[in-house]
Amino acid sequence: MSADTGHAAIVHWRRSIWNGARCEPVLLTLRPDGLQMQDRSLHTVLRAHPHTVTGRLTRLGTLLLTIDGRRYAFVGRGASLSPAPSPEQQRALADAGHGSPLPAAAGGAVDQLFNGGAGARMRDWHARLAAAGARLT
C-alpha cells in the first residue's frame, strides 16, 4: 500500500452457510502492516499480512478468503437473525475515523434496493485487498 493509512468497516462473517444467527458482525481493518478482524468484544480473531491472503469474490457478493489454511466468508450485511454490531465495534470504527458501520457504497440500483449496497461494499474490500497484495481472483 502507498501512503494510505488504511481502511476499516464492519462487515459480517458467515460462520455458517445455513444459520443466520451465526453471521456475526466483525470489524475488519486493512492497514499497511496487515489485515485484522475483531469480534463484537474487540478481541482479535485474525491478523495476517495481505500477501498471505488468497480468495475470490462470488457472484452474490460473498468475499471468500483463505488465511493460514482457514476459509472465511464475509458479506456486506448480516441476516435478519444476525446480531447487530456492538457499541464497542461502532466506537472503534468511529475512533479510526471511518464513520458509520455501513458506509455508503456506490453500487447498482438493484444492489442498493435489495441488498442495501452490500455487494458494492464487498467489491470495495476485494479491490483494496488486491491492491495491498492479496492474491485474489
Number of helices: 3
Q: Percent of residues in beta strands?
A: 25-35%
Terminus-to-terminus distance: 19 Å
- Principal-axis shape equals globular
The averaged pLDDT comes out at 84
> How big is the Rg?
14 Å
In the sheet with the most strands, the strands line up as 4-3-2-1-7-6-5-8
> Total strand count, please?
8
Low-confidence stretches: 99-105
The computed structural class is alpha+beta
Encode the helix/strand succession as letters.
Answer: EEEEEEEHHHE
Helix content: 10-25%
Task: Explain what the structure shows.
With 137 residues, the chain is an alpha+beta fold. Helices cover 22% and strands 32% of the residues. It is built from three helices and eight strands, in the order βββββββαααβ. The protein has an eight-stranded mixed sheet with strand order 4-3-2-1-7-6-5-8, sandwiched between helices. A hairpin with an 8-residue loop joins strand 1 and strand 2.
